[in-house]
Design brief:
The structure holds two protein chains of two kinds. Chain A is an alpha+beta fold. Helices cover 13% and strands 30% of the residues of chain A. Chain A is globular and about 45 Å long. In chain B, the strands form four sheets. In chain B, strands 9-5-6-10-11 form a five-stranded mixed β-sheet, covered by helices on one side. A two-stranded antiparallel ribbon of chain B has the order 1-2. Classes of the chains: A alpha+beta, B alpha+beta.
Chain lengths: 148, 327
């Protein structure tokens, strides 16, 4: 009776060849770059002169020793000025560590009013935050017009 | 043939040679033809889409030449939209860039009727939006919606059009949103392109190089919202209503794969092209879109380009090094 390769002694060879072909492609399909760090949910609120600001960009710039391996965490505020931070997936929060926070209003995003430019740079914004394990409910960021 | 079955030849019924086709032959012929058709149809489709792409490139090239003519006359490119008073816009009204370049695309008569002392949504300007200018249309865009109204976008009130407003598929890109790189693109000093709100930018101010800076992009199908390739009439659109408007310009944000999220940085929203036409570069061409550069050239860029290399092309003064291998 005719036998197919898969029922003879050649079967392990065929299987091995299959594995040898598939393994590198599996390895290649994994995410490149530094590994993901565990994240913890972060939420907060942005107020300018006491009023909530809508659709401004909130960015957490990591300032810890391994900051280069970690992407910035971002969020946009809703109509009440509230935001939930995202790093790798939507609303996943941010890894534990220290951050400099910037808050940027973008003209073509319909952000209400103009936020002072000092809040757009991590060197001048003056807002620092430490993310801890577990739920992080931050105190509202109170932005003010700089005194002339 | 018919004579063989006639009454004068009684044995003809038996000795008759088979005439016509048997069922099997017919089936074989049909199957061969259908296989050939199946081979041919995608080729026809491909040729059609390639032709659409080239016509679109030609349109953009004409727009580029018109913008350069405008630059020759006024020593600067037009702003994506005028909203405040300035030397180029003494009346301080809302004026769009497409209305300003009409004299250079053989639509001088429209320019003659357009009054820059009024907003674009005031008469007589608003009625001019009913004139379809084919040069502003990409031939690949399917099913243009009939636009009879627009939601308000302060200070502009809601609009009702007496005659359907005609759209545009070509829009000025104002720059890059800060979310793409919050340090590099933090302020207008680095994140702007050539044509943005109230801009007066000339060729010498394009420090990244005119051939490395995108001026006009495809944003097809507006005001109907598309995400992926799916039309979403349920989603409102307050930007990019008709070719005469001043508010259609946008900055590059980046989208997630299905276009439902925008402007959250290159990890969460990495897609630069063809994810959605909600203020992002979007075309109906397969695999990418056409872009008009400030030197007047039009190039097709593949949609799998990463966000940051593409963002480097959308600014004129951020000092990025453009790597031609990226696109």
């Amino acid at each position: 009776m005719h036998q197919t390769p898969f029922t003879t002694g050649r079967f392990p060879v065929a299987l091995l060849a299959l594995v040898a072909v598939l393994l590198p492609s599996l390895a290649c399909s994994s995410r490149q770059g530094p590994p993901r760090k565990p994240t913890h949910p972060v939420e907060g609120r942005v107020l300018f002169e006491g009023k909530p600001v809508h659709n401004v960009l909130v960015v957490f710039h990591p300032t810890g020793p391994d900051a280069a391996d970690q992407p910035q965490s971002t969020a946009r505020t809703d109509h009440e000025g509230r935001f939930k931070l995202s790093t790798y997936d939507l609303y996943d929060g941010a890894p534990v560590g220290k951050y400099a926070v910037t808050i940027t209003a973008e003209e073509d995003q319909g952000s209400i009013g103009e936020l002072p430019g000092i809040y757009a740079s991590p060197q001048t914004s003056g807002i620092t935050v430490e993310v801890r394990e577990g739920m992080n409910s931050l105190a509202p960021f109170q932005l003010r017009r700089p005194e002339q | 043939m018919l004579a063989a079955t006639g009454p004068l030849s009684p044995g003809a019924e038996i000795n008759r040679k088979p005439s016509g086709f048997t069922l099997l032959e017919l089936l074989v012929v049909i199957s061969v033809i259908s296989v050939l058709m199946a081979l041919l149809l995608p080729a026809v489709q491909k040729v059609r889409s390639a032709a659409d792409r080239m016509r679109c490139q030609n349109n953009m090239r004409q727009v580029g030449i018109a913008l350069h003519h405008y630059h020759n006359d006024y020593q600067a490119f037009p702003a994506s939209g005028w909203t405040t008073a300035g030397p180029r816009n003494p009346a301080g009204k809302f004026v769009g860039w497409r209305a300003l370049i009409t004299p250079y695309i053989e639509q001088d008569n429209i320019r003659g009727l357009y009054d820059t002392n009024l907003h674009w949504w005031e008469e007589p300007n608003l009625s001019l939006s009913a004139h379809a200018i084919r040069l502003f249309w990409c031939p690949a865009t399917p099913d243009r919606p009939v636009v009879l109204s627009a939601v308000p976008k302060p200070p502009r009130p809601a609009i009702t059009f007496a005659r359907p407003a005609q759209g545009t598929d070509y829009e000025a890109i104002m720059g890059v949103a800060a979310s793409v790189d919050p340090v590099r693109y933090a302020t207008a000093a680095t994140n702007r392109s050539v044509m943005f709100r109230n801009s007066v930018i000339n060729l010498l101010q394009i420090y990244d190089g005119a051939s490395n800076t995108i001026m006009v992009v495809e944003c097809s199908g507006r005001p109907l919202v598309y995400r992926g390739r799916v039309a979403r009439p349920d989603l409102p659109n307050d930007q990019g209503i008709c070719w005469i408007d001043s508010e259609g310009g946008f900055s590059l944000d980046g989208s997630n794969q299905d276009g439902s999220l925008q402007g959250l940085g290159p990890v969460l929203t990495p897609k630069a092209i063809n994810a959605t036409n909600e203020n992002e570069p979007y075309s109906f061409h397969t695999g990418g879109a056409n872009f008009l550069f400030a030197d007047g050239s039009v190039r097709f860029i593949r949609e799998n380009i990463e966000l940051r290399p593409f963002a480097a092309l959308c600014t004129r003064n951020a000092g990025e090094i453009v790597d031609l291998n990226d696109f």
